[in-house]
Amino acid sequence: MRPPRAREDLEVCEREIDGRQVYVVRVPALSQYHQLGALAFAVLEALEDGKVAVGDLPRELSRRHGIRVSLVEVGRIVGELERMALLEVTPAAAEAHGERPLLCAELGRLRDCDRQSYLQLQTGLLRKWRPQVPLAARMRRLRVRLFDPTSILERLAPVGRLLFARRTLIVAAAVALFALGIQLEQAARLKLEMGNALAHPLLFLAVALVVTLLHELGHGLACHTYGGRVHDLGVMLMYLVIPAAYCDVSDAHFIEGRWRRAVVALAGCYVNVILWALATLCWRVLAPELLLTRIALAVIGATSVSLFLNLNPLLPLDGYYALEELVGVQNLRQKNVRGGWVRLYRWCSTLYVGVIVPLAMLHLFRFLVGRFRLVGLLGFLVLAGVSLRPLGLRAWRWVMGS
Ligand SMILES: [Zn+2]
Fold it and tell me: From ligand 1's centre to the CA of 313, what distance in Å?
């Protein structure tokens, strides 16, 4: 039997996560990213030319890197690399997946004499064998791909460079502070007019969808500005109720510098803050009866909800991912992760959950139920359910004793 061989189209970058060196490997044909430790990457490297048999790997690893590792461990790692689709597909693997003998034989033939056709066939098979996402998970985030935003992002490149320049960030922060001052000064009027605007839910929903698309485009633009590739933008329905949008910026793993990766994670919120501030200025100067004023109010409402959810450190959303990048720790939410930054995260979470969420929820409950009765109560329950879901799950596990 021929030795296993690493795929030739893989892309790799080195990163430091949780204080250790890891390797992020991209499988371009499947748009997948995997994180490998030093040992797994050393095995993958040793399989690069397909000349080292699994049985010879311990000796080879010892010769190349001075690593002592058992054959059993090496076998496990090779199995794992194959499961991640990082190794070339062999006729035996195709057979194990139940492919026809003719196709398996063709795969073996192409592998030796026609690399281009072999790579195409391999990609087709790997896509076909990709495990199905469970129905419950799909229902939680029902996605519909709209288009590849590459050409739009290329045209918007100058805007991206301007938007993410330090000076623009400072100006945006100043305008946002000014807008906050306006909202605090005019709080009573804002509350009254927001209620009137919400009485037209269709306009509000349409504006919210545009705001969400711009939020996602912000992530895409930041990723593109720093050299990442973005090929997937679309809309989705969260928990079968909340319309939202998505932009696949997984390529941010390949962007150098944790600050830049944090900016990609926060770019959607940054766009939200800009829209929120501009809408506040418009609302302040325009007459209340104008359609533009109602749109501005809908923008203020939609961006506020988006910021409230995305900056919740309990939810695996933008704020959480940015924090992970900044502190260089993965899975901050897991109990077994420790360190100074993790303590800071827990403090922030406690503050957010103990003070900010109850205050916001109380205000929202009074406003929605007081103004819209039953419909307002339903809207409140949906929002509370989404923003407090992790707490609910934790409480459920505690009650069930698991
Ligand atoms: Zn976002």
Answer: 13
Residue in the structure block whose two tokens are 């803050």: 273
Instruction: Determine if the pTM surpasses 0.90.
Output: no
**Structure-model confidence comparison of residues 368 and 330, the more confident one:** 368
Cα–Cα distance for residue pair 94/106, rounded to 1 Å: 11
**pLDDT over 80 (residue 214):** yes
Q: How far is the CA of 268 from the centre of ligand 1 (A)?
A: 5
Q: Which helix (H) or strand (E) holds 166?
A: helix 166-185
Q: Which has the higher per-residue pLDDT, 191 or 390? A: 191
State whether residue 90 is helix, strand or coil: coil
382's tokens: 């949906």
**Under 8 Å CB-to-CB from 56, ≥6 apart: which residues?**
none
Burial of 130 (0-12, 13-18, 19+ CB in 10 A): exposed
Q: Which residues hold their Cβ within 5 A of ligand 1, which is an ion? A: 268, 318
How many whole angstroms from 266 Cα to the centroid of ligand 1?
Answer: 7
What is the tens place of the pLDDT at every residue in 336-346?
A: 666 667 777 77
pLDDT at 155: 96
Rounded distance from Cα 322 to ligand 1 centre (Å) = 10
User: Which pLDDT score, from 0 to 100, does residue 369 have?
Assistant: 87
The Cα–Cα gap between 299 and 282 comes to 11
Question: What's the CA-to-centroid distance between 4 and ligand 1, angstroms?
Answer: 40
What is the 311 CA–ligand 1 centroid distance (Å)?
9
3-state secondary structure of 94: helix
